[in-house]
Design a protein that fits this description.
globular; 11 strands; alpha/beta
């Protein structure tokens, strides 16, 4: 499809192959902590215009690669594009985050949700993927992504963000069959959406289960993991003559890493609430691990950032299968120079360890 990949460390690490140093990228690396992003965001006028204009989405996707020695680019988009395309009418209230004008309130609302053709209603995402892949010109791999069915459902039922998830958990306990119908529709939509991203040029995929950690162990397996399994089973796993690795990330999901490994995914995102050595033990080397520096560590001094990076690398220890990342997205008010310190420290320490 494109130029030969010049830096494939990230893809090789996700396949648990030996690498010269630990690859690094950062969740939300294209975003509000960068002044150049804020400039383009202002130019766009609003967040959804930025997401839905392929040229602008491409520009902000590439911005962090100009500043930092990162080993992957991730599509600039939003996890809520799918429910927006289903007609829930996404908007962003000032200071309040994402909201839906037409949240899910009943089984009838779920039944009425349309089937999505991602190359129609979400064509702007595929156009952005194709453009980014072209502009990368083989520099680093491009990661496509989606929210998990459960995480999408939390926003769809709550109508936006939530602290107690009372509406979606109320549905879980009082009307589980309706929630399962919604989750199944989401899983089908996510599978088609991610496969369309691969066809457009994505070279790796990530599923963000941001709110899986609010569930009990039994409910996590039934209402979140089951549907991520459905997606993994339905994904295109090879393109351009190369494996397309799939990474699952459940925030606060350290206790379920073994179960997540059983899905057949290639890698697991790990947040900072579990040591990588324990995550490695739980997964027994069956998958690669991505993470897991506490994002708040980037508020520290350059010296302390270097110390914390070393701790993460030491926690993973020897052997292949590590992609360095934060344990969640980078914070809005982090000094970009501090991220540069982190990236440089990963390069320095991991290269020494592998020499």
């Amino acid at each position: 499809m494109n130029a030969e990949l010049k830096n494939d460390l990230y893809l090789r690490a996700l396949s648990c192959e030996d690498v010269e140093r630990t690859p690094v990228w950062v969740m939300r690396q294209a975003g509000r902590y960068l002044p150049e992003y804020l400039k383009v965001r202002k130019q766009a006028g609003d967040f959804m215009t930025l997401c839905s204009t392929p040229e602008l989405a491409c520009e902000v996707t590439l911005q962090p690669l100009e500043r930092f020695k990162l080993d992957a680019a991730i599509l600039f988009s939003d996890i809520l594009t799918i429910p927006d395309a289903m007609g829930l009418e996404l908007y962003f209230a000032a200071g309040e985050g994402p909201k839906f004008k037409k949240p899910i309130k009943s089984r009838a609302d779920v039944t009425a949700l349309p089937s999505l053709d991602p190359n129609d209603s979400l064509r702007y995402v595929m156009d952005a993927v194709s453009l980014i892949r072209k502009e990368l010109n083989g520099r680093v791999p491009l990661i496509g992504f989606s929210g998990s069915p459960w995480t999408l459902a939390t926003y769809m039922v709550e109508g936006g963000g939530s602290k107690d998830f009372s509406k979606v958990k109320g549905m879980l306990f009082s009307d589980p069959s309706t929630l399962h119908e919604l989750l199944n529709k989401n899983a089908i939509a996510v599978t088609n959406y991610l496969n369309a991203q691969v066809a457009a040029g994505a070279q790796s995929l990530m599923i963000f289960d941001t709110w899986g950690g609010v569930l009990s162990p039994e409910n996590y397996k039934q209402f979140s993991l089951q549907y991520m399994q459905q997606i993994v089973d339905g994904l295109v796993r090879n393109a351009d003559g190369r494996k397309v690795p799939v990474v699952l990330f459940t925030k606060n999901g350290g206790r379920w890493l073994s179960d997540m490994t059983d899905t057949g995914c290639d890698g697991l995102g790990v947040d900072w609430t579990i040591d990588l050595r324990d995550a490695k033990a739980a997964t027994q080397g069956r998958v690669a691990l991505q993470g897991n520096l506490d994002p708040s560590a980037l508020y520290g001094s350059p010296e302390s950032i270097r110390t914390e990076v070393k701790k993460v690398l030491d926690s993973f220890g020897e052997g292949p299968g590590h992609v360095f990342n934060l344990g969640h997205g980078i914070h809005q008010f982090v000094n970009p120079d501090h991220l540069a310190v982190m990236v440089d420290a990963v390069h320095e320490f991991s290269a020494v360890a592998k020499s």
